Amino acid sequence: MSKRVQESQCSWQHARRSRRDALQAGAIGILGLGMNHLAGLRQATAAEGRQPSGKARSCIFIFLSGGLSQHDSFDMKPNAPDNIRGEFQPRATKTPGLQICEHLPKLAERSQMWSLCRSLTHGSNEHSAAHHIMLTGHSELPAGFSPNNPSRSDRASIAAVTGYAMRAKQQNNLPTAVVLPERLVHNSGRVIPGQHSGPMGPQHDPWMIEASPFHNTSYGAFPEYAFDHQDRGKPDERLFQAPQLSLPDGLGMQAINGRLALLESLNRQREDLASYAQVENFDRLRQGAVSLLTESSVHQALNVTNADEKHLDRYGRNSFGWSLLMARRLVGAGVSLVQVNLGNDETWDTHGNAFPHLKNNLFPPTDQAVSALLDDLHSTGELDETLIVMAGEFGRTPQITLLEKHYKLPGRDHWGAVQSVLFAGGGIRGGNVVGKSDARGAYPDEQPVKPENFAATIYDALGVPATAAWHDAQNRPHHIYHGEPIAGLS
């Protein structure tokens, strides 16, 4: 066994605790937080070799709920028949031979920063099942799966698994995984499955930052680019507002520091932290809550609508721009994974009116905000250590259809058989295309890639060891990897 493999395996065992750790544990216990809620302990374990083996320190997972049409974005078929080709024209990128949609000009100018996989495939054409498949990285649905009723028997989301895997590597007390700016909720009010930690337990659910209020008929990057798939005329007066964080009355930082100073002078401390393993997950949410309340960098990250004019102009003064600016600031503050839902549930579900809605409402804010994110990270040198992925739950059908009962203009239906996924940063080789769809954009023609490979690519980039596992309440191990990382991206 290689030394590197040995170190990786050791990094997933509980470290020995010193008397100083015991002192800190006692102090935090008085605050009602739990022994595991210690920046000191995390720094100690980091010093013992808990460093990511991958190239990325963090990941921004951009999710396009509804399903982006591959034909009209990153895998155009200009030589296909009219009923497949669509209305848009391809445009050249900075990468010789690589073309994408004419309405993504900023991304075309930055093709050296990103790569495509054009052959991701799975077997579901149903929204809720496909959400679960792509958000968890599992092609097969769990026994008893219900599209209308998320349950703890559902599989754990990629965000939750990443949060679990990175918690020992993170050198701060911030949540390891965050989802923003809203939970994905169907227009009927039911929550879409695949967004929580499933059988891992609620203590491992990713943090949900609710900055975008629910609206059941308006979609897209409000207020500038809000639209309704069926043009029903219901007004959208939502405001994008990140949560305002403040300490409860009577408990300011001076009080907290005073209590810690008093506890540091105690002579008797806990001598045995053998129960650490059993309580490690206890009150994890309180730990994150205190960090969110006390970290100035977090307050700055969430206060995006009041960012300086230059940043707002670059990212866009809309929910897409604000969300990606918030994500960029959160990974800068030390959060390991931020999932950004670009639009509420089924925003990209272009069954009808597809071409005007993509051209006028969806592509402009996406092109602007994702390009600004790439520029921002590149200018500071952080793109090399920040993996960016962008995917939906599926692609769209090759054939253009018209559902006259609901739409005035044509679109495309659900299609799990193939979609295009964008990757950037975190060791990804820019200006690169992996996989190929057939001439109709219907099925993979070369190098089919599964959701398991998609998830493994994220875990691998973040340095999660191939042997890593999470443990359930009965301490049974569950492997994190269920496929190999996508070959050819790096």
TrEMBL record:
State the Pfam families in the record: DUF1501
**Top-level taxon of the source organism:** Bacteria
What the entry lists under SUPFAM superfamilies is as follows: Alkaline phosphatase-like
Q: Which PROSITE patterns match?
A: TAT
> Which InterPro entries did the record assign?
Alkaline_phosphatase_core_sf, DUF1501, TAT_signal
* PANTHER family (alphabetical): BLL7424 PROTEIN (PTHR43737), DUF1501 DOMAIN-CONTAINING PROTEIN (PTHR43737:SF1)
Recorded protein name is DUF1501 domain-containing protein
Q: Which organism is it from?
A: Rubripirellula reticaptiva
